[in-house]
Design a protein that fits this description.
490 residues; alpha+beta; Hypothetical Protein Pfu-838710-001; CHAD domain; 2 domains; 10-stranded antiparallel β-sheet; 10 strands
């Protein structure tokens, strides 16, 4: 069983990154080992191994004199978190060719009893990187292997950078990984990551490297304890956030910002539903994330204004009014520049060690075992009844808000309630009455879409004012906002 904590790192100059890590207290005065690793991953043309979350590779290791070849099989992990626990079987082999016999004492024979799966395997991608390795032995007997990997994933003529830190537990409890990671995160900008090198290789092969990660649906059991289900759902939501933040370091895709904000809203919204299931004293603060979330919110408003809200109004403003075109073009240019500045500000916050340290603390909290139940305590409540009551209560609040006058503040509250209901139904759909869940979701989505479009125009008008756009253009946008408010859905 491999127990590992993965941390994504900024792709800084290799020397400076290795030196900074080497100066952190847990790694200082420990002589690192440097290895050159080349790995070839295998799968069938229809990716049957990927579908079962299995990885099979041949690794060439250079650094200890004679090159060594290792064949490794990894099975599906037990978590959607940055902390992974999965089966791993590693066997020395003579050369770069797969060896069927080396899989005999692994789960492979159950997957491939007649050998047809093995016969269909072929190389699908490779990774080549330098590994700087430290072994950290603690006084409590725990042993952690810290590996800094820098290099590339390669698929034909495409490649993507590898820059990550892997903390593998060799002895002791998993808590030792978090204790060590926290010390490193005080000075190095880490981001907890749940994406393996194999997963990144498949993404690159499908031209989906750094693609936005959208929400996943996790099936829950109706009899599952609320606390256990809540942890699983919060892990998935946090994983969506961290994956999009990591890709945002490198990509200009505005959808990464959108999906990161959706992930955080899903997390925050679901936390409001389930927080009573957690001991208050154990819940970490995520105040350190607020500067980043605020920056991403402003960046999203700029992206929507320049790509959606304003282009939809272009003809209505300029048609038949040639003199208005220069003012419009200037505003669009100013929006482009403002978005660039805001995106750089977001990236600077991602390089602030406090951001990654906060995310790491949340991961650790979600992975920590629940407090033991006292002998006389009531049995854990099943998920289904709790989920139904919580969604009914939220739906009632939404219905009441729809009866209020359509003020700007009231419409904002209505939109937030619609989002909370939609995210809650999305998360708990598998344990809710199907017909009712569908009705709630449809109502929430319709309101969110209508009010969201109106809010986007209002934000575009506010941004135009901040950027000191042409007064005529500002007046036009203000008029659109007033007209939309008067006809808002109730």
């Amino acid at each position: 069983m491999e127990i590992e904590l993965k941390l994504a790192l900024p792709c800084a100059a290799p020397e400076s990154l290795a030196q900074r890590l080497g100066r952190t207290p847990p790694l200082a005065r420990r002589k690192p080992q440097i290895l050159q690793l080349h790995n070839v991953y295998y799968d069938t043309p229809d990716q049957r191994l990927r579908q079962q979350r299995i990885a099979l590779r041949i690794r060439k290791v250079d650094g200890n004199g004679t090159p060594q070849w290792l064949q490794t099989l990894k099975t599906a992990g037990s978590s959607t978190s940055a902390l992974s626990q999965r089966g791993e079987w590693e066997t020395p082999v003579p050369d770069e060719n797969l060896v069927r016999a080396a899989l005999n004492n692994t789960p492979w024979p159950e997957l491939d009893p007649d050998g047809s799966l093995f016969a269909a395997l072929q190389p699908c991608f490779a990774t080549t990187f330098e590994r700087t390795l430290w072994t950290v032995r603690q006084r409590d007997g725990s042993v952690v292997e810290v590996a800094l990997d820098r290099g590339n994933t390669v698929v034909q003529d495409q490649q993507a950078p590898i820059c990550e830190l892997e903390l593998e537990l060799l002895a002791g409890p998993p808590q030792a990984l978090f204790d060590l990671a926290r010390q490193i995160a005080r000075t190095v900008a880490v981001l907890p990551s749940q994406t393996s090198k194999a997963a990144r290789g498949y993404q690159l092969a499908q031209n989906a490297h750094d693609a936005p990660l959208r929400a996943k649906t996790l099936a829950q059991s109706k009899k599952q304890p609320i606390g256990e289900a809540s942890r699983q759902l919060l892990r998935e939501m946090l994983g969506q956030l961290m994956a999009n933040l990591d890709a945002l370091r490198r990509s200009e895709d505005p959808e990464l910002v959108h999906q990161a904000r959706i992930a955080w809203r899903r997390f925050s919204s679901f936390w409001r539903l389930c927080k009573k299931q957690f001991p208050t004293e154990a819940v970490p603060s995520w105040a350190a994330l607020q500067p980043l979330m605020g920056t991403l919110g402003r960046l999203r408003d700029l992206d929507v204004a320049r790509a959606s809200s304003l282009p939809a109004l272009h003809s209505a403003y300029t048609q038949g009014h040639a003199r208005r075109a220069p003012g419009w073009l200037k505003l669009m240019s100013d929006l482009e520049q403002a978005a660039h500045v805001q995106r750089q500000a977001a990236r600077q916050l991602l390089e602030d060690p406090r951001t990654g340290a906060c995310l790491l603390t949340i991961v650790e909290w979600l992975e920590s075992p629940p407090h033991p139940v006292e002998p006389m305590a009531k049995p854990a409540r099943p998920l289904s009844g709790w989920a139904r009551k919580r969604m009914q209560r939220l739906h009632k609040k939404l219905e009441q808000a729809q009866q209020e006058p359509p003020t700007l503040d009231g419409l904002h509250r209505l939109r937030i309630l619609a989002k909370r209901l939609r995210y809650g139904v999305d998360a708990l759909r598998s344990v809710l009455p199907a017909k009712r869940a569908q009705q709630w979701h449809a109502q929430a989505l319709q309101l969110q879409s209508q009010l969201g479009a109106q809010r986007d125009v209002a934000q575009a008008a506010a941004i135009a004012e901040q950027l000191q756009a042409d007064p005529v253009l500002q007046a036009f946008l203000h008029g659109v906002v007033v007209g939309q408010t008067a006809t808002s859905p109730r």
